[in-house]
Amino acid sequence: MSCGCCCTDNKSQELDKIIAKYKDSRGALITVLHEAQEVYGYLPLSVQKRIAEGLNVPLSEVYGVVTFYTQFFLNPKGKYKINVCLGTACYVKGAGQIYDKISEILKIKGGECTPDGLFSLDACRCVGACGLAPVVMINDEVYGRLVADDVPAILQKYIDQEAELAKA
Amino acid sequence: MIYRSHILICNGTGCVSSKAPAIMEKLQELLAANGIEKEVKIVKTGCFGLCEKGPILVIYPEGATYCRVSVDDVEEIVNEHLIKGRIVKRLLLGDPNVEDVSKSRDNVGFFAKQVRVALRNCGVINPENIEEYIARDGYAALAKAVTEMTPAEVIAEVKKSDIRGRGGAGFPTGMKWQFAAQQVSDQKYVCCNADEGDPGAFMDRSILEGDPHSVLEAMAIAGYAIGANQGYIYVRAEYPIAVQRLNIAIKQAREYGLLGKNIFGTDFNFDIEIRLGAGAFVCGEETALMTSIEGKRGEPRTRPPFPAVKGLWEKPTILNNVETYANIPMIILKGADWFSSIGTEKSKGTKVFAIGGKINNTGLVEIPMGTTLREVIYDIGGGIPNGKKFKAAQTGGPSGGCIPASHLDTPIDYDNLIALGSMMGSGGLIVMDEDTCMVDIAKFFLEFTVDESCGKCPPCRVGTKRMYEILDRITQGKGEEGDIEKLEILAESIKQGALCGLGQTAPNPILSTLRYFRDEYEAHVKEKKCPAGVCKAMLNFEIIADKCKGCSLCAKKCPVGAISGEIKKPFVISKEKCIKCGVCMESCKFAAIVKK
C-alpha cells in the first residue's frame, strides 16, 4: 500500500511493527509517535492516518497530540538539525546573538530548513549543559562556550563535509 | 578483582558534551597498551557538580581531582600518574601545591559548604551498576520498609521528617502520601515527575544520570506506603542519557527481584514504566503530566479532585519530583529526626541548585536549607566573572522571580523566597550581572510562557500574550505612559484567573522585576533608555570626540558604512544608518566609542 509520501516499503513495515507492539497497551499514542518519528524523521499526515487506524483512535486526536508537543514535526528537518539552546543560562550568556548569526548566515528563520535540505534551525529549551553555556547542538554534537564569531567555522565544517561526500 | 587504582570519570551531560566518552576510550586504549588494564579500573559516574571545570576525573587512592581534561592530556595522566605515581599538577583542580592532593579542591570553596543527601551517590558510583548502589546501602531502606514497617509507619516517618516537595510548590510529601493511602481503590499509582522543564535547571537530570536507583527505590517505598503496585516515571525526551540509565536501572532492579513480584519475599508487588515527554513545559504541572502519561494532549484540569483522589486514569495517584524521591531512602534509613535536624524551621533538609549564568563556578550544588544566597553565589559559586557587579539572582524559572543584591543575605528556604516574590521552584538559580536588562529578562520569560501556554484557559492564553506585547513595545522604545500600570493589572488578573500553576505564576517574572527594578522600566518607558544597554532599539553608539584619534578602523569595520570622517580627526556615527551591531565599539583601540 502506498502512503503517498516519500517513505519506502521498508519504513511502512517498521511502522506496522511499532503499531502492532503497542496496539493493546493503554495510553501508548505518544510512545508510538516517538518511535514512528525515529523511522520517518517527521510525522507526515499519511503516517498519522496509519497510526490512527492502527491504534483505533480518531485522526483528530492523533493530529491534536502531534501539534501539541514541540518535539513532533509535521515537516522534514534538515540533514543537520541545528538546535540553539535558549534556556535562561544560555540566554544571559548571549545565545540570542548566536541564534541570529546562524539565521543570518543560513538565511533561514527558526523552524525552517535550507532549500538544499542540509540545515534546519530551531531554538530549543534547556539541554541541561548549562556549564557549557551558551550551547548549540547540531544533531547529537554539542558545541559549548560559544561566541557568535565561532559560528561561521562550525557551519563551514558541515558544508565541507558534504562537499567531500559529494566528491566521493 | 582488586585494582590498585580507580579512575572515576564524570559522565553527566555536561562532561559528555565536552568529550568525556572520548577521554574514556583513550584511557582504555593506553591502559591496555601499557599492560595495566587489569590494575586500573575506569568507573563512569554521574555528575560531580562542578560542570564549569568539566570534563572532570578523579583518581583514587590518591583522590586527585583533574579538571578540564582533554583527550590530549590522557597520555600524560597515564604515564605520569598511573605508571610513575607522579601527580599531574597542572590539571589539578584548585591549589596544585597542597601536600595531600585529595585536599587540592578544598580551596575552590565549591565543595566545602555542601551537604550531599539527594546527590549522595552522584559522582561516587557507577549508575549503570546496581551492585555499586547496593554497596552504598541501596535498597536497604526498601527492605526495612517492607519487612519491618507497616505502610502507616512509613508514612508517619515521612511526615515526621517534614520533607516538602522539591519540584516547586513545596507541598508536604507525607501529607500527600497519606491522602492517597486513605483512598479505597482497586488500583493506585505512584508517579515521578522528571519533566524538568525550567530552563537552566538540571538537578533532576543529574540525579537520574548519576543515581537512578535511588529514585526507583523511593518509588517502591511510596508504592508500599500508599498501596500501589505500578509506578510511572515521566521524563523529558531531551534527556537521552537519563532515559538510557533509567532503563538499565529498571532492568537490573527487576533481575535482582527489587522490582516485580514478591519483593523481599513479601506479598508486595511493584513495577515501574518510563513514559517520555515530547516537549511541553506545561506537562510539569501534575494534572497535565498525568494526562500526558495517558497519551493525550498534556492539558491541565481543575482541582479538586486532587490526584490523590482521582489522578492517572481516574485512580488515586501520588506524584513527586525526582529530588524528593532521592531523599526518601535516607529518611527511612537514617530516620526523620536526622533529616529534620538539617535545614530551617519550616524547610527541612537540603536543596539542590543548578547555578548558572554569570557566575564563575557553574554547576550543581546541594546545600542545607537556610544557606544564604550570598554564600551560594560568592563562597560556592566563586562570584561574578570579569569583575562585574552582581545584579540579581533568578530562581524558580518562568514561575519565579529575580532577587536583588539587597536581599543577598536572606537564608534560602521556601517561605523566604516566596516573601521575596520569587519561589524555590525546582532549583534553577541563574545569576545576572550589571549587563543584564531586567525588562528584557521579564520579556524573555513571558515569551517562554506564551509559547508554552497550552491554550486551555483564556487568562493564560490571552493574558500572557498581552503582557508580552506590552513588554515587547517597552523594549522597542515604544512604551506608553500607563503601560507599567496595565502590566500590574493584567498580572493580578492572570494570577487569580488562570487554571493551573503555569498560568498562575506566569506574571511572577514581571511582578518581581517591577518590585525591585521599577526604575529600569520607567527609564525604558519615559526616557526611552535601556540602562543596561541591552535593548537595541534604544541604544545609540557615539564617538567621544576627545578620545577619537581618527584612525578610521571603526569606519572600515562598520558593515553598513555608517561611520565617516577625515583621518586624524574625530569620526562620527550616522544615527540613521547605524544598525547598532556594536562592531565599532569592539574594534576601537582607544575606547572612544560608547553606547548610551
Structure characterization notes:
The complex is a heterodimer of chains A (168) and B (596). Chain A has 168 residues and is α+β, with helices and mostly antiparallel strands. Chain A folds into 2 domains: 9-68; 80-167, 3-Layer(aba) Sandwich (Glutaredoxin), CATH 3.40.30.10. Chain A is 48% helix and 11% strand. A 4-stranded mixed beta sheet of chain A has the order 2-1-3-4, covered by helices on one side. The radius of gyration of chain A is 18 Å and the shape is globular. The mean pLDDT of chain A is 89. With 596 residues, chain B is of the alpha/beta class. Chain B folds into 5 domains: 5-107, Glutaredoxin, CATH 3.40.30.10; 130-340, Rossmann fold (3-Layer(aba) Sandwich), CATH 3.40.50; 350-433, Ubiquitin-like (UB roll); 438-526, NADH-ubiquinone oxidoreductase 51kDa subunit, iron-sulphur binding domain (de novo design (two linked rop proteins)); 540-595, Alpha-Beta Plaits (2-Layer Sandwich), CATH 3.30.70. Chain B has 23 helices and 17 strands. In chain B, helix 5 (140-148) packs parallel to helix 9 (212-226). In chain B, 54% of the residues are buried. The interface between A and B is large, with 37 and 50 residues.
- Strand % of chain B is 5-15%
Question: pLDDT under 50 segments of chain B (min length 5)?
Answer: none
Taken from the alpha-carbon principal axes, the silhouette of chain A is: globular
The CATH architecture name of the largest domain in chain B reads 3-Layer(aba) Sandwich
Structural class of chain A: alpha+beta
Low-confidence stretches of chain A: none
- Tally of DSSP helical segments of chain A: 7
Give me the Rg of chain B, rounded: 27 Å
Mean pLDDT of chain A: 89
Greatest interface and its participating residue counts: A-B, 37 and 50 residues
Main beta-sheet strand count, sense and barrel state of chain B: 5 strands, mixed
CATH superfamily of the largest domain in chain A, called what?
Glutaredoxin
Count of the separate structural domains of chain B: 5
User: Which sequence of strands runs across the widest sheet of chain B?
Assistant: 10-9-13-11-12
Strand arrangement, largest sheet of chain A?
A: 2-1-3-4
Task: Please report the distance between the alpha carbons of the first and last residues of chain B.
Answer: 67 Å
Number of strands of chain A: 4
So what's the CATH class of the largest domain in chain B? Answer: Alpha Beta
